[in-house]
Amino acid sequence: MAKVKPFRGVRPPREMVTNVASRPYDVLNSEEARAEAEGNPKSLYHIIKPEIDFEAGTDEHDPKVYDKAVENFNAFQANGWLVQDDCEHYYIYAQTMNGRTQYGIVVAANVADYMEGRIKKHELTRRDKEEDRMKHVRINNANIEPVFFAFPDNPALQQVIDEVTRGEAEYDFVAPDGFGHHFWVIDSPEMIETVTREFEKMPYLYIADGHHRSAAAALVGHEKAQANPAHRGDEEYNFFLAVCFPASHLNIIDYNRVVKDLNGLSAEEFIAKLADNFDVAEVDAEEYRPSALHNFSLYLGGKWYSLTAKPGTYDDNDPIGVLDVTISSNLILRDILGIHDLRSDKRIDFVGGIRGLGELKRRVDSGEMAVALALYPVSMKQLMDIADSGNIMPPKTTWFEPKLRSGLVIHKLD
């Protein structure tokens, strides 16, 4: 059963939250972080992307950069920009995008649950990325940024969310990207007990976003347990920071592909090859968005096309084979365009659906890319079914938006 606990969060004072809070470390590069943090010494980027405090071009993996992270983390606490709560709490963190709000419960998730498979994954991780975040967790002795989990809807937890969010929010602001962020502290002992008890009833939690952060946090906790001869299992390092959302609150958006060339084919030859496995129709529209599972939109030569996979080209009984990302990866990217490894091939790039279909059109019209492919988004049910089956999704399958804002609360490992 899933084990979570309340914790003494380290958080900014209410009047400083907009100065401290930042986007996650992995959605922007060093120069973008430098620009966003300019003139703001309180920005969390000084902790999660501390290379911005060195000359441009400094390697973010340089040991002095990790040292700077912990120096800045200590300074934030000494300056009162981050303050630890006196008591253990759970928290509610809500996000609003396009008039729709999703509500998550902030918990300390259990390392053993991750190591033993009760926190389920749907993506592969890269060891180099894990090691980078492990160094960051080790040196700060804290989970600075949360991971993003989903859980099956639970009426008792929904009641806690509803009751807590009727009160005044501790933080309530709109970030520069236009997304709203709202944060409450759960201080009722009865509600805290309810949260702990209801999570204990769940056989699994599911990683929605943040596979590398989850792996890094759990592996550091496991290291600490192995190194402690007096290890009991209830030490703070046995837990890591997560925001857990009811599955029905979450919306996965499309994650699309652009490719630099047609693998030596003319546009006419490419379309002809597509017709072997897809019903292809030119669409007279400014933009064409896939209308259903197994329907794709293609942008090529200034025109949009609808592609619908023919029966027999996929297996609806196979949790991986049924995915549109699998169909397109096999029948278009691999078999026609010669792209076999989505993780390493330099001819392909990926565009989160938050950027819209206009971004696909722009990159092809500019001549940077030859063709764009838009996919119908994966559902939360598909994600959870795949995780339950022990399978792994192909790379770049899911895109969650909005991203969790970092810096609203931090979890210390001691």
Describe this structure in words.
The chain is of the alpha+beta class and about 425 residues long. Helix content is about 30%, strand content about 25%. It contains 13 helices and 21 strands. Strands 1, 4, 5, 6, 8, 9, 10, 11 and 12 form a 9-stranded mixed β-sheet that branches. It has a 6-stranded antiparallel β-sheet with strand order 15-17-16-19-14-18, sandwiched between helices. Strands 2-3 form a two-stranded antiparallel sheet. Helix 4 runs parallel beside helix 6 (about 125-140). The longest helix has 17 residues, at about 210-225. The chain is globular, with a radius of gyration of 23 Å. The two termini are about 25 Å apart. The mean pLDDT is about 95.
- Head-to-tail CA distance between termini: 24 Å
What class, by secondary structure content? alpha+beta
Number of helical segments with 4 or more residues: 13
Characterize the largest beta sheet: strand count, sense, and whether it forms a barrel.
Answer: 9 strands, mixed
Which regions contain 5 or more consecutive residues with pLDDT less than 50?
Answer: none
Mean pLDDT over the full residue set:
95
- Helix fraction by DSSP (H/I, runs of at least 4): 25-40%
Strand content: 15-25%
Large-scale geometry:
globular
Number of strands: 21
Rg to the nearest angstrom?
23 Å
Q: Layout of helices and strands, plus pairs?
A:
Elements: E1 4-5, E2 10-11, H1 17-20, H2 30-37, H3 45-48, H4 63-78, E3 83-84, E4 90-97, E5 100-110, H5 111-115, E6 119-120, H6 127-140, E7 142-143, E8 147-151, H7 155-164, E9 171-174, E10 180-186, H8 189-200, E11 205-209, H9 211-227, E12 239-246, E13 252-253, E14 255-259, H10 267-274, E15 278-283, E16 295-300, E17 303-309, H11 324-334, E18 348-352, H12 357-365, E19 371-374, H13 380-389, E20 399-400, E21 411-412
Parallel strand pairs: 6-11, 8-12
Antiparallel strand pairs: 1-5, 2-3, 4-5, 4-10, 5-12, 7-21, 8-11, 9-10, 13-20, 14-18, 14-19, 15-17, 16-17, 16-19
